[in-house]
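Inverse folding, one chain.
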């Protein structure tokens, strides 16, 4: 579901323009693929009336609407999603009653920090209408938003190593090319 959410975020700025262009031309032009790709600014687009926010507005029909959303993608994106077996995942989550919760956004709040303070500082500046679902509480302590924690090992146990200078990498590639060319010449005799 994370993949779908990220794609939705990428397309969000141009979604209205794509829908408008689709509505304008769908009866006039048979293949709108290039036009809609241009309108979206990417090699894919979505013509469904749904986006993640609208999907979450109708929990009772979440599966049907999510399939409609997926069917609204350009053929190339549908092919990619089909390789991830997204429809099977949707069906499985729906059968388990987990589809709606899987589509909602979550945040990783640092341990020991207030969920409310974190949302105000980190989320609201970017998503002004974000909210905390206070109906979701931890079964053990009854705390809002305190469901568990995650340790980011890369953040705490890894040290950053800057990449090598481009000139050094280019020189190494040229040396390897010369070495390979010499081997090929040696083989050709």
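Residues assigned per position:
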């Amino acid at each position: 579901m994370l993949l779908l959410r990220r794609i939705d975020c990428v397309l969000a700025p141009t979604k209205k323009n794509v829908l408008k262009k689709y509505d304008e031309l769908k009866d006039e032009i048979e293949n709108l693929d290039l036009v809609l790709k241009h309108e979206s600014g990417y090699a894919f687009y979505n013509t469904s009336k749904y986006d993640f926010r609208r999907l979450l507005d109708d929990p009772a029909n979440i599966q049907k609407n999510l399939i409609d959303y997926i069917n609204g993608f350009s053929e190339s994106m549908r092919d990619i999603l089909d390789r991830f077996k997204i429809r099977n995942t949707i069906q499985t989550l729906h059968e388990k009653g987990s589809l709606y919760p899987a589509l909602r956004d979550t945040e990783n709040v640092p341990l020991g920090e207030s969920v409310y303070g974190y949302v105000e500082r980190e989320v609201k500046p970017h998503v002004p209408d974000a909210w905390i679902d206070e109906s979701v509480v931890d079964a053990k302590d009854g705390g809002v938003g305190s469901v568990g924690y995650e340790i980011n090992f890369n953040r705490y146990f890894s040290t950053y190593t800057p990449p090598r200078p481009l000139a050094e990498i280019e020189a190494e590639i040229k040396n390897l090319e010369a070495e390979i060319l010499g081997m090929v010449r040696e083989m050709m005799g």
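The chain has a mean pLDDT of 84. Residues 166-188 form the longest helix (23 residues).
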